[in-house]
Amino acid sequence: MVDLSRTPQIARVAAMSALGRDPGPMEAAASLSHHVYVGSDIVVKLIGEARHPRLNREVALAPHLPEGLTAPLLASGLDEVNGHKIRYACYARMAGTALAMGLPGVEAATARSLAEQAVQRLEVLHRWAPSPPARKVLAEPLDHGGLVTKAALLALIDSLATIDRNSVVRPALLKGLTAIADNAPVSASTDTPVHADCHWGNWLASAGRVTALLDFEWARLGEPLDDWCFLIAFSGVHREAVLDVVARETATAPEILRAGCEIRSAAYLASDLHLALTRPDNVPAEMLTDRLSELEQIIVERSWWKTR
Question: Are strands 84-92 and 73-81 parallel, antiparallel or unpaired?
Answer without folding.
Answer: antiparallel
